[in-house]
Automatic annotation (TrEMBL), chain A:
Regions that span the bilayer: 12-37, 76-95, 107-128, 155-177, 231-251, 263-282
Pfam hit, one: BPD_transp_1
Organism of provenance: Caldicellulosiruptor kronotskyensis (strain DSM 18902 / VKM B-2412 / 2002)
GO CC aspect terms: plasma membrane
Name of protein: Binding-protein-dependent transport systems inner membrane component
First-listed, main subcellular location of the protein, grouped into a coarse class: membrane
UniProtKB/TrEMBL annotation, chain B:
Pfam families: SBP_bac_1
InterPro entries: Bact_solute-bd_prot1 (IPR050490), SBP (IPR006059)
Protein name, entry field: Extracellular solute-binding protein family 1
Phylogenetic lineage: Bacteria, Bacillati, Bacillota, Bacillota incertae sedis, Caldicellulosiruptorales
Length: 298, 438
């Protein structure tokens, strides 16, 4: 029996071995090493040299770009996450209606998420939103004067965020799946009681989808904090560093200036910030999420 | 008689069998020998479409000439090239033949020994290259790191149609003052047109050029100090500020999406911008988009202490020190840069060839754009001494381009810009010194 179990274990282990090796080599080892390097000067080409807390002190006292990048990143998260989630929910509610050809709409609305924030799409975004781009030409048809989407430091961050909002598909699909699970009896009972549509939305729909809302909020916050490709390609961090994010500061230090140690220190600070935000969302979720399952089951 | 006949037949048969055996065995031996001589080399470069096409054609020609050599091409754009190369060098997986930029030599040599010394290979003929050019740009610690692919110079690309539209003479020797007055005239005549297609990076080149022509010396000295004073810097920033004020440069708020890539600016492609400060090696690629493109020299002040005209190799071709076939790699580089056949295939995709044999072959066939030849030779006559690695540091460039953007967006006055740049440079130079002297 024991031998059998051991053999079974071995087979199981063999099955997970590729993942395990990948995890150890490509995730855990770099994770640990980045922590070690954050206390070093390391250019990749020369062996690392221990410098203690220097990188962290430099970051908070001397690097002019760090506070700017940090503030920009927070701005980006604050603009992108609520906008993306509300838009995803809005579209999910529409797509939950019983309409003709709804499957086609569902596919079409999911398409942007398949394209993703790739380099090609980011370049397309640049041409869409430039001063003489298609978006302004379209606005011109209605007599609206063109907006300087990418050239005005006050607006550029918003324009860049729109690319992320545009990829609302994955959050939307999750919302849609949950919306379909809400028992129709709840709405029928509310109708009988004479509840308004707004009441039904706030008292039935929102509480019922709150676990998905929580999941989307956590995932989108983490994603937004790590955003890189879109802003890097569209604006390159400009104008006047108004879209220069923490991830770009990390990239520039690591791969342009070859200050890997400093870049590692920056990424650990980024990690801690994400951790704090996620922990806050987790803590707060007890006040606004509702689980219909009893504790034992969930 | 019959016995004899049989004997002869047997003898013939034996001889025939043996000869057949020897023939086959010789063929086989040659085949085996050829197989054992088979060499595979990896060649990595960056460039645009025209360069890729010509380089691939040259590789094909070489493989036809030397069937035992197989060359695997690894190519793409400049974006991310250095990052990939550094990772490969660290991981010991870099290709055999590597195209590198001269500005990387200082940094790479300070960090380790990655390239073979090309002057030690008898396969390489250095005679067609100008000795001083090699000494100035291609050596590091007495080692010949790579061979120059071409001669590259800083120049101004201009649109002939634009000049015609505004009645600007083409054969003009530009001065700093001329640029200002002509630019003002252009923008006054038509609000949609700007003389200069300058982004923050080009403005940084202008800033350096202006200061160096006034002051001479280096942008950053070898002892990590600034090679300029506050007064000159304020003057240079004031000049740039004037350019913005008279409408010489398209406002950055409009050209922002093309920061770092002014040659892609739709206004430039439409012919609404007149001049672009760029390298001669990019002329062919830019001309493909704007057929009426020509080139002229950058402005030089009267009594300039330095012309600040940069003439440098377009790129270098180096051999990886860890290559298993360094001699074959060196042999290929020699053919690629010195051979007439290669020159006629490659033409000017890497600027005017640095090798005299290649250059002569192209001149004989009239395969070189006369504009490139003329500007390169003029630039060579006025070439400034080579820049040191510190003056080309990317962190310092980022600081300067940020300050220039703040000036352009009127967040700083020229004096404030100069003060800010000097304060940030002082701090960054101390940091670079700390990192480099460890």
């Amino acid at each position: 029996m024991t031998a059998n179990l051991k053999r079974k274990d071995l087979v199981g282990l063999l099955y997970v071995l590729p993942w395990l090796v990948g995890f150890l080599v490509f995730k855990l080892y770099p994770f640990i090493m980045s922590f070690v390097y954050s206390f070093c000067d390391y250019s990749m080409l020369k062996p690392p040299k221990f410098v203690g807390l220097y990188n962290f002190i430099y970051m908070f006292t001397k690097d002019e770009l760090f506070p700017k990048a940090l503030l920009n990143t927070l701005k980006y998260v604050i603009i992108t996450v609520p906008l993306k989630i509300s838009f995803a929910l809005f579209v999910a509610i529409i797509l939950n209606m019983k309409l003709k050809g709804i499957n086609l709409f569902r596919t079409v609305y999911y398409l942007p998420s398949i394209f993703g924030g790739s380099v090609a799409i980011s370049i397309l975004w640049r041409f869409l939103f430039m001063k003489e781009g298609i978006v302004n030409k379209f606005l011109g048809l209605f007599g609206i004067e063109g907006i300087n989407w990418l050239g005005d430091p006050r607006i550029a961050m918003f324009s860049v965020s729109l690319l992320a909002v545009w990829q609302f598909g994955s959050s939307m699909v999750l919302f849609l799946a949950r919306l379909k699970e809400i028992p129709s009896e709840l709405y029928e009972a509310a109708l009988v009681d004479g509840a308004s549509r707004l009441k039904m939305f706030t008292k039935i729909t929102l509480p019922m989808i709150s676990p998905i809302m929580f999941f989307n909020l956590v995932m989108q916050t983490i994603n937004a904090f790590q955003e890189f490709t879109g802003p890097y390609i569209i604006t390159g961090g400009g104008p006047v560093n108004s879209t220069y994010l923490l991830s770009m500061l990390i990239y520039d230090n690591a791969f342009k200036y070859f200050r890997m140690g400093y870049a590692a220190a920056l990424s650990w600070v980024q990690f801690v910030i994400i951790l704090i935000f996620t922990a806050f969302i987790f803590r707060s979720s007890t006040y606004w999420t509702y689980y219909e399952y009893d504790e034992g089951r969930f | 008689m019959v016995k004899n006949k049989r004997l002869i037949a047997l003898l013939v048969l034996v001889v025939f069998t043996f000869s057949l055996f020897f023939t086959f065995s010789t063929v086989n031996c040659e085949k085996v020998k050829a197989a054992s001589n088979k060499v595979t080399l990896r060649f990595m470069w960056w460039g645009g479409e025209a360069r890729h096409k010509a380089t691939l054609a040259a590789i094909q020609a070489y493989m036809k000439k030397y069937p035992n050599v197989r060359i695997n091409a690894e190519y793409g754009g400049i974006e991310g090239y250095m990052q990939k190369l550094i990772t490969q060098l660290v991981g010991r997986t870099a290709p055999d033949i590597i195209q590198i930029d001269v500005t990387w030599i200082g940094e790479l040599s300070a960090q380790g020994d990655f390239f073979a010394d090309l002057k030690t290979f008898k396969e390489v003929n250095l005679k067609p290259f100008e000795e001083k050019f090699l000494k100035d740009w291609c050596y590091s610690n007495g080692k010949l790191i790579g061979l120059p692919t071409g001669v590259n110079a800083s120049a101004i690309h201009y649109n002939k149609d634009f000049f015609k539209k505004f009645g600007i003479p083409e054969n003009k020797t530009w001065t700093w003052e001329d640029i200002l007055t002509t630019a003002e005239m252009v923008h006054k005549k038509d609000k949609n047109y700007y003389l200069l297609n300058f982004d923050a990076t080009v403005c940084y080149y202008l800033l350096k050029t202006y200061v160096l022509q006034k002051k001479g010396g280096k942008w950053i000295n070898d002892d990590y100090t600034m090679g300029f004073d506050r007064k000159t810097l304020i003057e240079a920033f004031t000049y740039i500020d004037k350019l913005f004020k008279v409408g010489a440069i398209q406002p950055f708020s409009e050209s922002a999406p093309f920061q770092g890539k002014p040659e892609q600016n739709p206004k430039w492609l439409k012919g609404e911008l007149g001049m672009l400060w760029n390298w001669t090696s990019t002329f062919a690629a830019n001309k493909a988009n704007i057929p009426s493109l020509s080139m002229t020299m950058i402005p030089i002040m009267k009594n300039a202490k330095s012309t600040a005209v940069t003439v440098r190799p377009s790129q270098l071709l180096a051999v990886n020190k860890l290559s298993k076939n360094p001699k074959e790699a060196a042999k290929f580089i020699n053919w690629f840069l010195n051979d007439k056949q290669a020159a006629l295939i490659l033409k000017d995709v890497r600027g005017v060839p640095a090798s005299s044999t290649a250059r002569e072959a192209l001149e004989k066939e009239k395969a070189l754009d006369p504009v490139i030849t003329q500007i390169t030779s003029e630039a060579l006559k006025r070439a400034a001494p080579p820049e040191n690695a510190l003056s080309q540091n990317q962190e310092l460039e980022k600081i300067a381009t940020d300050v220039i953007q703040q000036l352009a967006y009127k967040q700083l006055t020229p004096t404030q810009a100069a003060d800010k740049l000097m304060a940030l440079y002082k701090q960054k130079l101390a940091e670079i010194k700390r990192l480099q002297s460890r």
